[in-house]
Amino acid sequence: MLLDDGVPSGAMLIGQRATVGRDEPIRAVDPTTGEMIEPGFSGASTDDVAEACALAAQAFPRFREEGLQQRAAFLEAIADEITELGDALIERAMRETGLPRARLEGERGRTCGQLRLFAAVVRDGGFLDVRIDPAQPGRQPLPRVDLRLRNVAVGPVAVFGASNFPLAFSVAGGDTASALAAGCPVVAKAHSAHPGTSALAAEAVRRAAARCAMPDGTFSLLFGHGNAVGEALVADPRIKAVGFTGSRGGGLALMAIAAARHEPIPVYAEMSSINPVLLFTGALAERGEAIGRAFAGALQLGAG
Q: What is the band of 2 on the pLDDT scale with cuts at 50, 70, 90?
């Protein structure tokens, strides 16, 4: 997905294969200048969505049964590949979001930290909640076989990248890390505000999957205008759960699609909220100017 100079090519990623989408391209806008940023990223058609979901479903039986050590190594390899992208990732994210370098470098660290944290959880194995009740061959009136229980992955997961966290809550962010840790292939939809950043992160996941010999279809990345790609992704019967960070309207719309399916699926959504701020008269009288400055700074912090 990268050109020789490290610039994203504009292709989608369906499994290990870079694919030119069949819909019109998406271009990021430099918020500091209003200029379009090249290249354009080809949008997915409903056929592209179906292909990515089919490949994820094909990969699922093998990926679910990968050994815990191998799966943990895969998550760590993603973190390593993101780090290896170096300044190319940070500079692209700065250009697409207007966020400062320090904020994005911190977010990259958080992203890699999340991946490594989930790797440690996978290695521990406690999340499987394994239980074995031994057989009772002498039980009367009939013998009983041993009974075994463990948590298993549900299947391919659709992940929607967030607008406000282009790394930690996006293509290789917490939703993707947790799904892969559980043994679920991921079909991610990039946020249109930062497609180049998303493509770079997806390339890191692709390289890690190739290095660790994960099955083709363990991860895919799609781009898309409007709502069509997201709606098709959540409606596809091969998708078994959704991770979403975004607006209340968008989240509720996806929840309605998921609930209306023949087989309803869970949507793990972090949606916008209203946070009340209480200003007391005594505090305003004593330090009103300082409170005003701090409040304005908090509103603008991380806005890009």
A: low
